[in-house]
Design a protein that fits this description.
The chain is mainly β and 105 residues long. Helices cover 10% and strands 40% of the residues.
Length: 105
């Protein structure tokens, strides 16, 4: 369910809630609380930049924060965000993503 969509000065903000209860087996659904049956997404898109955050109310410390930049170079740049050597050492680079392996909600 799309909660809100706003076009700002630069980019677009969206907030969505994915209700995943229909994709959970009934025997698990009876054990987990309702707060664990939804996934919240907050996204900011301003091409070529994008940032998406996923969270779950059941696990307050869980936050998946994805920052992306689209460039026409097949993923050959090592430091696309111009990070310092210290920041770069903390990051994990991923350029090989097969969407067929990602299950759809």
């Amino acid at each position: 369910a799309v909660v809100s969509t706003q076009s700002g000065h630069y980019g677009r903000d969206t907030k969505k809630i994915y209700h995943i209860a229909g994709h959970v087996p009934p025997y698990i659904k009876g054990v987990i609380p309702k707060t664990a049956r939804s996934l919240h997404e907050e996204a900011w898109n301003a091409y070529p930049y994008s940032r998406t955050k996923f969270s779950c109310e059941f696990v307050p410390k869980f936050l998946l924060d994805i920052e992306s930049k689209y460039v026409d170079d097949c993923g050959t740049q090592d430091n696309i965000f111009d990070l310092s050597p210290e920041e770069l050492a903390k990051k994990e680079k991923s350029t090989d993503c097969d969407s067929a392996l990602i299950p759809l909600l």
